[in-house]
Amino acid sequence: MNEKHNHKWVVLMTVCLAVFMGMLDITIVNVALPEIQKSFSSNFTTLQWVLNAYTLVYAMMLLPVSKLGDRFGKKLVFLIGLLIFITGSLASGMAQSDTLLNFFRGFQGIGGAAMMSLSLSIVTLSFPSKQRGLALGIWSSVTGLAVSIGPLIGGALVDAFGWRSIFLINIPVGIFAIIMGMLFIHDTEERRPEKLDIFGMIFSTVMVFSMILALIQKEMHSSYAWTNYHIVLLFALAIVTLVALIITELKVKEPMINLSIFNSSSFVGANIAAFTMGAGIYGGFTYLSILMQNYMGYSAFDTGLKLLWISAFTLILGPLTGLLSGRIGNRWLISIALLFGVTGVLTIQHLLDVPFRWHDLFAGFILLGISNALINPPISNTAMGSVKKSDVGMASGVLNVFRQVGISFGVVVLGISVTNGYNTKLNEGLSHLSQVPPVLSNHLSAAHGEIVSMLHKAGPFAGQQIFASHQARAYRKLPIFHQLHDVVFQAFQSGMTRACSVMAILLIIGALSSLVLIRRSVKNSDE
C-alpha cells in the first residue's frame, strides 16, 4: 500500500496526460474544420458531425464505462479506453472520406469517455482525503487548460503539418500514457463479483444519447422550433428511458446506478453546479470565439492566445483551490467561483460595443479565468466526497454527464439567444436604412429584398465573411452598402448582450443551488 501511495503523483501525472489529450481533442478540431472541408469537399452539415460524433458518443458512454470500471477494475477499463482512443485517432488521421472520419471520431469518443470518467475516480481513490483537494485541483487545472488551449495547439499543428496531424499526435502521447498506466496505476479497492445491469446500461445509454442528439438537432437546424417532431420525439424518448431506468434501478439487486447517491443534497448541488458551469461558461466559450474570429478578425491561433487569459488562471489557482476548499468549504468556494463568472459575463456585456476591441473583453476574461480556476476542484471534491467509496466510479460518471449535457444545452440556448437578438436588431437596422432620400430609393428598392435575404441566410455567425462573399460584391456600389457593416455588427452585439444575460442567469442559479444544497465537506463514508 505504501508503494502505491508513493506512486500517487505519477498516477496523477498519467491520468492528467490522458485527460489533457482527450479534452484537447474536443476543441482542437474546431480550427481544422476549414482544411477538412477542403480535403473532402464536405457540406456544412457533414462537417458539423466531425465535432458532434465525438461529443454524442462521449456523452452516452460516460455512465456505462464508469460501471464497467467498477465491475472489471478502473485501471483495466481506463487503459482499454486509452487504447481505443489512440486507435480511433490513428484511423481518423488516415480517413479517406468525411463519412469514415465521422465514424472514427465516434469510436474515439468511447475511449475519451473512459479516460475522462475513470481518471477522476482513479485520482479520488489514489489520494488520502487530506491531499485529495490538491490532487483534484491539479486534475481540474489540466482539464480547463486543455479546453482553452485546444485552438492554439490545433492552429499550430494545422499550419505546420496539415489537419491529419491533430489526430496522429495522439498516438505517441497515448502509448506513453498506456505504459505509465500499466506500471504505476493500481486498483485500490476490491472488485465485487456482481452481475452487470444490462437493462440499466441500455436505458442510461439511450437516455443520454437521445437527450444530446435532440440538442444537437436544435443546434444544427436553427429553424427548428422546440416543438419540431425531430426534437420532441428525441426528448420524449429521453424521458421514457429515464423513467424506465429509475424503475429498473429500484428493482434490480445490483443496479448500475445506486440511486441513493442522489439522497445526498451535496451531490445534487455539485451536479447542478457542474451543469450550470458547463452551460454558462464552457458553452459561452463558443460564442466568445466566434466574436473574436468572425467579428474582430483574429485568426484561430490568435483567438487561442486570447483564451489563454482564461485558462492560465487554472495553472496558478487550480492546485491552490483544493487547499482553499478545506479552509472556507466547498459550498462557499463553488458559489464564489460562479459569482466571479457572473461578474465576468456582465462586465463583457457592459463594455462590449461596436467597433469591437480586445480591451472590451479583457477584464471579463480575467474574471472568467478566476471563475474557471476556482470552480472545478470543489465541484469534484464535493461530488466524490458525498458518496460511499464503492460509488465513486459511478458518481464520477454522473458528474461528467451533467457537465457535458450542460455544455450542449448552453451551446444551443446561447445560440438561440444570439440568433434572436441578432435578427431583431438586424431588422430594426435595415428598416432605418430603408428611410433614405428619394434619389437613392430606386437603387435600394431593387436590392433591398435580396440584401435582407442574404444577411438573414448568412446568420449571426458569418461576421465579416459575408462582406467578402461573392454574392455581396454585387451590391458594393450601392450608396448604403458601407452602412450594412455597422448594422450587422450592432446586431451581433445585441445577440451577445442577450446571451450574456442568459449566461449570468444560469450561473446565478448554480451559485444559489450550491449555497442551499451543499453541506459541510465530508470524507467518503467508508473511507
From TrEMBL:
It holds the Pfam family MFS_1. It is a multi-pass membrane protein. Keywords: Cell membrane, Membrane, Transmembrane, Transmembrane helix, Transport. It is found in: Cell membrane. The chain crosses the membrane at residues 9-33, 45-64, 76-95, 107-127, 134-154, 166-186, 198-217, 229-247, 268-287, 307-325, 332-352, 358-376, 397-418, 496-518. One of its GO terms (cellular component) is plasma membrane. Gene3D superfamilies: MFS general substrate transporter like domains (1.20.1250.20), Multidrug resistance protein D (1.20.1720.10). SUPFAM superfamilies: MFS general substrate transporter. InterPro entries: EmrB-like, MFS, MFS_dom, MFS_trans_sf. Its main location: membrane. This is EmrB QacA subfamily drug resistance transporter.
